[in-house]
Amino acid sequence: MKIIESISELKAETRPFKKECKTVGFVPTMGYLHEGHISLVKSSRQDNDITIMSIFVNPMQFGPNEDFEKYPRDIQTDAKKAEEAGVDILFIPGVNEMYPDGYNTYVEVSGITEKLCGKSRPGHFKGVCTVVLKLFNIVEPDRAYFGQKDAQQAAVIRRMVKDLNSTVQIITCPIVRESDGLAMSSRNVYLSKEEREAALILSRSLNEAADMASKGEVRRDRLMDYLIDRISSEKLADIDYVEILDAETLELKETLKGRMLFAVAVRFGKTRLIDNVIVEVR
Ligand code: AMP
Question: What SS3 class is residue 238?
């Protein structure tokens, strides 16, 4: 596995792939790798000749009072995990490489960025879209792999790619969970033992609500009430949002129909966790 820090070096390394008609899969991450990230690498390796992973903790997508400074970082362990997973090139640009002096261009998707995480984290998706489009222009992948864990992010990226006529194919991969159901996340390391236990309420309540919908409950307000009550029953849980929306458009539907996204963001102490399930309602 090659580790590359500069954009020009990455371009030089990937140029021959195009000539040789090799397909490139791209896995953008912020590092502190876990099995969720590795599952994206596995999918990329199945579909492509070459897999490139980036690790970049993007300051632009963090709000002023968020955890940019203390976001967990461990490049050495990450490099080992990436190599073991079969990544061909690990791209680790510095902040100045991505945003040199005078940098002044931003990508903003309207509409679907104004709800869920976009509402509680103003400017977050502007940072995400800007960095993802920059990385697409640098890596020039055929396919890019995103986790369903960040359901809104995947929907926003799909919208951006469509609107801006990018040729990158966006692949969304299922959520990888710990054996007890907690969705894997680099931020899980922030949790105390009690908070880690309390956080199980997310997957449990989502599964229960999904089960109710599968058994015929199509009234959004009933399912919302259930989720809010169930999560609030956990003392350490502080709800940021609970939402049930159309999985593609993120539009609100009072009566569930089609692919529906049940999404939650909840704070446990200082740690904000997100989780979701998708339910097909006929
Ligand atoms: P992050 O490093 O948290 O920015 O995540 C990088 C990519 O990994 C994003 O596309 C995430 O959606 C995806 N990802 C993070 N956690 C998981 C998980 N538990 N299962 C599947 N994908 C994940």
Answer: strand
